[in-house]
Amino acid sequence: SATISKDPKGHLLARVVVRLQYVTQKILFMSIVEDVVEQALVRFVPGIKKCTLIDKGKGKCSELVLQCEGINFPKAWELGGFVDLHSISTNDIAAVLNTYGVEACRAAIVEQITAVFSVYGISIDDRHLGLLADYMTHGGGYRPLNRIGIEGGSTSPFHKITFETSTDFIVKAVIEGATDQICNPSARIVMGAPIKAGTGSFDLLFNAAAAARASKEQKEAGFKIKL
């Protein structure tokens, strides 16, 4: 049997009476109660399996962070009076994309990569991480930065060959009769051609006639310049 009452402070107390047959061996009920309590459902939020309250404050400043196993953005928005909605973050990139859009997805990718490297004391320029995030999200969604993502997002055989499983990509390109216009930067580098970016985006031509005229004029003026 079980009864519920209140203590002088108003807290609820549950008293459980268990009737057992006579036994000589003692039973430790504390571990049994702990197991039952862990399985008891008091309040449930779909998508959230577990929550832990962490104090990330420094010194006398307390900064409580609620770390959840799982994600439920709509339910978090309902707690606007208790949590800072502008500080919500998650490593579920798909959830960020579907809820906040591709720009937030890009920012989340940069944030998560930065967090991984910061554990080892490694700092990376945000512009470098921005290039990775741009590549992963420029199509409006996000794709993995691995051979699977490159295989599905690139039509350049030489670009695929430069990443991983070169033999597999070569064989597949030969069987399918694939062609390559050598426009991709990785493809141009592997073929020994300058990439079409920066100083490689234009041609620098030497005007010999103009140089000869300038040299003649300078000689007449008394200057000596060797070309």
TrEMBL record:
EC class: transferase
Pfam families recorded: RNA_pol_Rpb1_5
The keyword Ribosomal protein is assigned to this record: no
Record-level GO BP terms: DNA-templated transcription
Segments traversing the membrane: none
The protein's Enzyme Commission number: 2.7.7.6
Protein name: DNA-directed RNA polymerase
Organism: Amorphochlora amoebiformis
